[in-house]
C-alpha cells in the first residue's frame, strides 16, 4: 500500500462464524508459486557500495590486533546513569586501553569530547568511539511516551518527534539511539508496552518506519542525524503473563505474522542497527539465536547493519540454562550473529581465547568489526571524531522554542477522548472555579514518563495544573489539591481526602489527574492489576459523589482497567505521559483549543482477566455470537463480557463523523492486480476536527485460520463542519499475505470482507466483500 493511501480496514469479530461463505480451497491456495511474496533485499542509502570505505576498513582491519578488534565489539555504559543491573568499574581505563569501541549513557558536548579524546588521542589506532543512548521519546525536549505518540496515528508528527530528538541528541555528542522499540505488545501487564506502538502489526510497522526516517534522515553522514536501532529482536512483548524478561513461547507463525513485521519494516526503511531481546524464543535466548540473527535477519531480510545485544544479555544465557559459562555464551552469541556486546564484557574477557582455541572463526570477528567500523565511517567519525561535539551548537539547539512547540503539538495529538457524556468537555472559557485534583495533577516528574533520556524531571515539565492555570481565562479560579496517592502501599489511606473534597465542594468542575507513577511502566515495571494504584479509586468515587462534573485525565503508560470510571465519570481523557509541554497540551484539549483526534493503539480491557486481549483475535469454533445471550458452550466468560472496555482504534472528538458504506473499485482482483476501497466521511458536528479513518479486512477462510479483522490502512483527515471527503485505500494481494500452512509467506485466493470505519469492531459499518482470484 502506498504511503499516501495509508488507510486501513476495520474488522468485525461479530461476523465470525455464521458468515463463513465457502471459497477457494485452502489446499489449492497454499503454495502456488504466483502467490509467493518475494523477499525484497533491503537497500538503504547508507548501504550503497563505497569502495573508498572498503579500502579504508580493509587497511584498518589488517593493522588491528585481535584484542583491538574485540574492543570494537564492546559497548560499555558510563557511570552517569544506570539502565541495567550491573555497572563496570573503570570504563575510562577500558577506553584508554582500546578495549571498548562504544559508550552509552554519556552525553553533552563536553563529556563526549573528553571520552572521545581518550580514544582518539590515547589509543594506538585512534579509532573513534561511538556514543549511544536511549533517546526514546525526545532527548531534552520530551515528547509523549511512544505509546502515546502511537495514539496520534499521525506519522508526520511521529517522524517530527524523532527528528527533533536526533537534532538535540546529536548536538550533545550522541551518534546512535536505542530506538525505535518496535515490539508488538498485547499484554497490558507488561510495563514496556509504554515504549512501543501498541498491539497492531500494521500500525506498528508504519510507526517503525516513521521513527527510523526521523532519526536517520536522508543522510547518516549529516551531523544532525543518528543511527536508529530496531529493538528488541524478537518477540520480547510476548513475555508470559506480562512479566518482564519472562519466557516467550509462541508459534513460528505468530512470530512471523505478528511480532516480526515491524522489524522487517524497519529494515526496509534502512534502520542501521538491531538490538537483541532478553527473552528466549523457541528455547534459545535471542542473543544466541542463529535462527533470528542470521537466518531471518541476514539471509531472509538482507540486513546490512550491525547487531548489538541488550544489556548483559549474553551473560544471561547462563542463567537461561543455555550456556554453561560466559565463554560459551560469548561463542554462541557471536556465532549466532551478534556483532556487539552491550555491557556484559563477555566478548572483552573471553573471545580472544575462543578464537585461539578454534571455537570462533576470525572471519566472523572481522565481519562483525567491519560492520561496526562501517557505521563509524558512514557517520563521518574517521574524518572528524569531534564533528558531533560542538558546545556552541549544543547551546543553540537544546530546548529550541520550535522543539517545545512541536512537543506540545504531538502531545495534544496523542490524547484520546474516551468519554464525553453531556459534552462536559470542552470546558468553557468562563468555567468558573476549577479544581485540579490528584497525585498527577501537579507532578513534574511524572509528566515525562519513563525512558526520558536527558529530560529534566524537576523544573521544565509543565504540569496539568500549571497548564490549566495558564490557559484559564480571567475570572476563572484554578486550585489544586493532591488528595490521593498512587503508591501501591497507600491503598486504604485517606489522608488528603478531606482537603481535596473541600476544594471539590467549592468548585464548579473537577479535573481529576490520576493514573500511574511514571516508573510503573517501562522496563522491569510489570503489574498483575491494571487499576488505579494507591487510593486514587476511592478518591475518584468520593469526587463523583459530590455531584460536581468530573473530568478524569488519565496519565499512564498502559491501558488501565477503568470500568468504574467509564460507568460513572462523565468525561475521560487519556493523556499518557505527555512530555515537557504536557500540561499545556492537556489544557489545549480540555478547553477545546485543540479538538482531540487520538485513537487507541491498544485495546483497553474491562479487567485484567481479559488480558491478553487484542482486536485481531481469532474467531474460535464457538464464537459467542453463535449462542443465544448467556448460552453455555460458547467461548465466553461467566462474569465479564468478551468485548473490551474500549476498542483498538477508538477515540472521540468534540465533533461527530458519519461514514458512508464502503465501495469497491471491483468485485475481485487477480494476483497482479489491486482493488480500491472508498468511503465518504462527513463532519456532522459543528466544529472542525480530525478523524482517523481506518480500513479493516477479514480473510474468511485460509489454509490456517485468520484473524476476525486486520488493520490494513488508515488516513488522518481534517474536516470542517459539514464537509465531506472520500477516502480511498488501494490494496494489492501483497497486503493480504500471511504465513500459510506450509510456512511460506503469501496470499491465498478466496473471499475477503472489508470495512472502512472509525475504529476496530465497528459494527455500524457494513462490510463489503471481494474475491482474490488465482
Ligand atoms: C535495557 C533495555 O532493555 C534496552 O531497551 C535499553 O536500550 C538498554 N537497557 C540500554 O539502556
From TrEMBL:
- Cross-referenced Gene3D superfamilies: Glycoside hydrolase family 3 C-terminal domain, Glycoside hydrolase, family 3, N-terminal domain, Immunoglobulins
Kindly list the GO molecular function terms attached to this UniProt entry.
beta-glucosidase activity
Region (Disordered) residue ranges read 28-48
- EC code(s) of this entry: 3.2.1.21
Question: Its catalytic activity?
Answer: Hydrolysis of terminal, non-reducing beta-D-glucosyl residues with release of beta-D-glucose
Q: Which domain of life is it from?
A: Bacteria
Return the NCBIfam families for the record: PRK15098.1
Q: Which PANTHER family match?
A: LYSOSOMAL BETA GLUCOSIDASE (PTHR30620:SF16), PERIPLASMIC BETA-GLUCOSIDASE-RELATED (PTHR30620)
What name has this protein been given in UniProt?
beta-glucosidase
Organism field = Pelagerythrobacter marinus
Amino acid at each position: 500500500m502506498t504511503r499516501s493511501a495509508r488507510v486501513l480496514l476495520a474488522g468485525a469479530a461479530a461476523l465470525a462464524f455464521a458468515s463463513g461463505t465457502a471459497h477457494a480451497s485452502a489446499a489449492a491456495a497454499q503454495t502456488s508459486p504466483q502467490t509467493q511474496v518475494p523477499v525484497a533485499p533491503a537497500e538503504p542509502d547508507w548501504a550503497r557500495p563505497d569502495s573508498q570505505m572498503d579500502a579504508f576498513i580493509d587497511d584498518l582491519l589488517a593493522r588491528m590486533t585481535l584484542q583491538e578488534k574485540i574492543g570494537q565489539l564492546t559497548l560499555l555504559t558510563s557511570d552517569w546513569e544506570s539502565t541495567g543491573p550491573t555497572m563496570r568499574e573503570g570504563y575510562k581505563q577500558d577506553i584508554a586501553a582500546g578495549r571498548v569501541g562504544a559508550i552509552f549513557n554519556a552525553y553533552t558536548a563536553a563529556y563526549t569530547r573528553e571520552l572521545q579524546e581518550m580514544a582518539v588521542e590515547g589509543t594506538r589506532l585512534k579509532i573513534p568511539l561511538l556514543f549511544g543512548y536511549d533517546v526514546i521519546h525526545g532527548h531534552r525536549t520530551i515528547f509523549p511516551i511512544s505509546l502515546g505518540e502511537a495514539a496520534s496515528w499521525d506519522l508526520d508528527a511521529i517522524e517530527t518527534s524523532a527528528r527533533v530528538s536526533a537534532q538535540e541528541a546529536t548536538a550533545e555528542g550522541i551518534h546512535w539511539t536505542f530506538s525505535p522499540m518496535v515490539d508488538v505488545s498485547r499484554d497490558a501487564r507488561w510495563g514496556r508496552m509504554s515504549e512501543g506502538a501498541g498491539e497492531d502489526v500494521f500500525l506498528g510497522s508504519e510507526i517503525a518506519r516513521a521513527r527510523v526516517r526521523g532519526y536517520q534522515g536522508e543522510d547518516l553522514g549529516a551531523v544532525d542525524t543518528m543511527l536508529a536501532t530496531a529493538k528488541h529482536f524478537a518477540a520480547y512483548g510476548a513475555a508470559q503473563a506480562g512479566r518482564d524478561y519472562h519466557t516467550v513461547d509462541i508459534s513460528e507463525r505468530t512470530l512471523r505474522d505478528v511480532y516480526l513485521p515491524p522489524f522487517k519494516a524497519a529494515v526496509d526503511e534502512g534502520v542501521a542497527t538491531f538490538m537483541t531481546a532478553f527473552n528466549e524464543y523457541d528455547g534459545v535466548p535471542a542473543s544466541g539465536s542463529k535462527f533470528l540473527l542470521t537466518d531471518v535477519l541476514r539471509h531472509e531480510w538482507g540486513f546490512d547493519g550491525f547487531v548489538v545485544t541488550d544489556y548483559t544479555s549474553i551473560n544471561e544465557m547462563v542463567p537461561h540454562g543455555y550456556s554453561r559459562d560466559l565463554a560459551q555464551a560469548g561463542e554462541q552469541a557471536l556465532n549466532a550473529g551478534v556483532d556487539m556486546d552491550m555491557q556484559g564484557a563477555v566478548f572483552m574477557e573471553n573471545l580472544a581465547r575462543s578464537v585461539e582455541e578454534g571455537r570462533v572463526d576470525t572471519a566472523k570477528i572481522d565481519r562483525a568489526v567491519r560492520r561496526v567500523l562501517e557505521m563509524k565511517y558512514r557517520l563521518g567519525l574517521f574524518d572528524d571524531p569531534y564533528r558531533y561535539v560542538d558546545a556552541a551548537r549544543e547551546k543553540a539547539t537544546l530546548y529550541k522554542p520550535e522543539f517545545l512547540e512541536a512537543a506540545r503539538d504531538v502531545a495534544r495529538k496523542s490524547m484520546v477522548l474516551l468519554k464525553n457524556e453531556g459534552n462536559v468537555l470542552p470546558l468553557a472559557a468562563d468555567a468558573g472555579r476549577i479544581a485540579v485534583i490528584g497525585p498527577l495533577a501537579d507532578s513534574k516528574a511524572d509528566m515525562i514518563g519513563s525512558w526520558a533520556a536527558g529530560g529534566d524531571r524537576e523544573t521544565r515539565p509543565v504540569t496539568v495544573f500549571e497548564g490549566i492555570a495558564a490557559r484559564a481565562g480571567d475570572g476563572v479560579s484554578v486550585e489544586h489539591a493532591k488528595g490521593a496517592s498512587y503508591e501501591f502501599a497507600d491503598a486504604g489511606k485517606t489522608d488528603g481526602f478531606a482537603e481535596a473534597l473541600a476544594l471539590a465542594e467549592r468548585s464548579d468542575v473537577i479535573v481529576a489527574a490520576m493514573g500511574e507513577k511514571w516508573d510503573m511502566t517501562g522496563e522491569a515495571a510489570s503489574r498483575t492489576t491494571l487499576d488505579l494504584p494507591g487510593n486514587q479509586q476511592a478518591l475518584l468515587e468520593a469526587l463523583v459523589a459530590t455531584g460536581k462534573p468530573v473530568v478524569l485525565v488519565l496519565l499512564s503508560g498502559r491501558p488501565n482497567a477503568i470500568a468504574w470510571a467509564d460507568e460513572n465519570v462523565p468525561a475521560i481523557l487519556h493523556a499518557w505521559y505527555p512530555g515537557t509541554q504536557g500540561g499545556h497540551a492537556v489544557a489545549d484539549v480540555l478547553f477545546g483549543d485543540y479538538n482531540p483526534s487520538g485513537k487507541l493503539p491498544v485495546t483497553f480491557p474491562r479487567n485484567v482477566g481479559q488480558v491478553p486481549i487484542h482486536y485481531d483475535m481469532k474467531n474460535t469454533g464457538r464464537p459467542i455470537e453463535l449462542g443465544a445471550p448467556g448460552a453455555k458452550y460458547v467461548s465466553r466468560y461467566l462474569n465479564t463480557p468478551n468485548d473490551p472496555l474500549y476498542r483498538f482504534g477508538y477515540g472521540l472528538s468534540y465533533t461527530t463523523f458519519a461514514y458512508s458504506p464502503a465501495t469497491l473499485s471491483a468485485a475481485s482482483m487477480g494476483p497482479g492486480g489491486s482493488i480500491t476501497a472508498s468511503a465518504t466521511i462527513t463532519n456532522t458536528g459543528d466544529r472542525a476536527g480530525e478523524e482517523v479513518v481506518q480500513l479493516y479486512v477479514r480473510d474468511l477462510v485460509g489454509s490456517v485460520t485468520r484473524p476476525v479483522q486486520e488493520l490494513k490502512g488508515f488516513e488522518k483527515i481534517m474536516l470542517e463542519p459539514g464537509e465531506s471527503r472520500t477516502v480511498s485505500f488501494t490494496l494489492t494481494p501483497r497486503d493480504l499475505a500471511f504465513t500459510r500452512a506450509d510456512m511460506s509467506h503469501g496470499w491465498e485466493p478466496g473471499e475477503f470482507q472489508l470495512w472502512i470505519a472509525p475504529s476496530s469492531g465497528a459494527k455500524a459499518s457494513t462490510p463489503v466483500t471481494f474475491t482474490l482470484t488465482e
